[in-house]
Amino acid sequence: MKGWIGNILRVNLTSKTYKKESFTEEFARKWVGGRGFAVKILYDELKPGIDPLGPENKLVVALGPISGIPAPNTGKCIVAAKSPLTGFYGDGNLGTKVSDQLRKAGYDAMIVEGKAEKPTMLYIDDDKVEFLSAEEMWGKGTYFSNDWIYAKYGKNVGVLNIGQAGENMVRYAVIRSMEGRAGGRPGIGAVMGSKLLKAIVVKGTKTIPQADPAALKAAGYGDLKTVHEMDKKSGWSIQSTNGVLAWCNEVAALPVENCRKTSHPDAWKVDGERLNNARVATYGCPSCTMKCGITIHDKEGHESELDYENVALLGPNLNIFELDQVGSLNYLCDEYGMDTMSAGCTLSFYADAIARGAAKGDFKFGDAERGKELLGMAARREGKVGNLLAEGSLRMAKEFGHNSEAYALQVKGLDIAAYNCKFIPGQALSFGVGPMGAHHKEAWIITFELKNSTRDSYGADKAAKVIELQRIRGGMFEFMVACRFPWIELGWKLDNYPRYFNLATGLNWTLDDMWEVADRAYSMIKLHYIREFPDSTRKGDYPPAVWFDTANSDKEGPIAGKHLDMEKYDQLLQHYYDQRGYDKRGIPTKETLGKLGLSSEASAAEKYAKLS
Amino acid sequence: MKVTVKLIGPLIYAAGFSEKEITLPDSAAAKDLFARIKLDKKRPTIITRNGNAVSAADKLSDGDRIVVSPLYSGG
After folding, report:
1. Could you say which of B12, B44, B51 has the minimum Cβ distance to residue A250?
2. What was the ipTM of the complex prediction?
3. A497-538, pLDDT tens digit by residue?
4. Residue A57's closest CA among A538, A596, A549, A528?
5. How far apart are CA B71 and CA B64, in angstroms?
């Protein structure tokens, strides 16, 4: 087997043991890596109904057959577990040297089981795994931990670590790496914390088996240079992802005040121009030549790395338009190790619930200083308010009652990314049918639906576009474990990815082969959902109710008086199910699962819901 | 007629301005406006008027706010 090493490292924190397990070529071809490996492993090894924060949950760290090669933007890693936020499969990807170091250590993935007795750091050095004390780092933030690890092992090791939010099992705690990268929005950092696992450090020295290493090296280095030149020519990384903020503001798609509004006259103060003007430094992931991480000095003087999602959700969505204050809120999320998007949505929901009289409290939209205090309270689970905020917007809404769930900006428990879909039906569908919840990495069709369709259309073309993009973004890029930015922002051709794959594995795959694996992975995530929530399948595929609310319509601007139409959304959702081969409940049919080679998984799923 | 043009992201640095008012003949279309801006015409863009997309042939009106953006694909 070329491309894949063929080994998974299994570590048990309870017994302090580890072993190397091999997988078959059939498994490799069926699931490829990354998200593909994680959905299959967790489906087979986790019992439905387990506590995501209990020792029986497992953390999967998974790479792909092109991880560790010098091709554009392949320095990523997938982290996955049963999500403490959503209650079923959850994952995230982050840039990290774990990508090549774990592969060089001899593994395509690792599974972490059990729970340590005391705060622990795993140190993987090729074939050896050490269970080291992490007590010096426990209670400290991610910047401290990362520095501590670098001081001990140098900067060439791969690092995954958590902050106080992970330790205290904040349900949207993330995993961090390289003093700036973060991943695992559905609370994968809290799973590490629940296991008393502060950090994973990886060092590898072996050669990764490849079918044609010389051709792969030549293609990879050449393409890194080409992507860099494309970026320079396009100017994309001048404003990076935050370039889109001004556009969202113009087309009424910006989340403002917990999505009550879709634009704001002060949005320019936090847009891409202002971010670029305030730039202190630029950071990126390994194997990246179009670096997107722009840092600024926050209000307190820390260096804070901003992108569109965190600017929009910690800024305009909280009615905060001072870039340095947005930087402060973002810095705290990074230091504590919590998802900036969920943190922004949780705070905006709290402010909205207080304003609407559903909750008592002293937090108002626009109050950055109180926002900072609340983030700290959430990370430490301090007092009643801190504990409440640590649970995330959906659980808070259930606690508050008063129909507040309607304006919790989440799908399946996962908070939205920064696109206000009050009148963008296709993107609302993308959030609704996001397999893990409202994640922007699955599909993003806003420019498509504005440019090629009409904004108020709910046609089958929009469902088809969502599926097309799911196959690419949430599919191929997640199981190959590569960043989508060269393709989406610079037009780097998708054919390059099967090309790298074929040079690595010696196979002869096309994009169609990739789409089949993508559909398989999506169906498996559905099966994860079905066995946890068998009665909620269609219900889980709706975007936040507030986007359907007449009273929440914009009072002025391009979409004044407009909102999503429930009857038409139902039709759009049905288009999606029909094209996916799902039944009216949103469950893949036996025929669909059979075509994807999932007949045995289908039989197992029938224990929870009868398949059509 | 006068229209306001707002450029987005990297287009600002290519064209040399972020936002400005441009005077056009009364019958001008979006493509006439586009021709007046120093941009790579092959670059895929989306042009919106008052928040909704327009085609190159669409006639403009006095007071329109026209936004020209690269075809972002969502972070």
Report:
1. B51
2. 0.97
3. 999 999 999 999 999 999 999 999 999 999 999 999 999 899
4. A528
5. 21
Q: Give the nearest chain A residue to B54 (CA atoms).
A: A451
Residue of A nearest to B66 (CA): A250
Q: Which runs of E-coded beta strand occur in A229-379? A: 281-283, 293-297, 303-306
pTM exceeds cut of 0.95? yes
Is some CB atom of chain A closer than 8 A to the CB atom of B38? no
State pLDDT tens for residues A88-139.
Answer: 999 999 999 999 999 999 999 999 999 999 999 999 999 999 999 999 999 9
Please give the domain boundaries of chain A with CATH numbers for all domains. Answer: 7-203 (3.60.9.10)
Q: Which residue of A has its CA nearest to B39?
A: A234
pLDDT bucket at A179, cuts 50 / 70 / 90: confident
| Rounded Cα gap, residues A577 and A588, in angstroms | 8
Report the residue of B3, B40, B48, B73 to disrupt the A interface, i.e. the one with the largest count of A CBs within 10 Å.
B73
The CATH superfamily assigned to B2-70 is: Beta-grasp domain (3.10.20.30)
CB A571 within 8 A of CB A459: no
Instruction: Tell me the domain boundaries of chain B.
Output: 2-70
- Report the distance separating Cα B68 and Cα A378, nearest Å: 41
User: DSSP letter string over A534-564?
Assistant: TT-TTGGG---GGGG-GGGSBSSSTTBT---
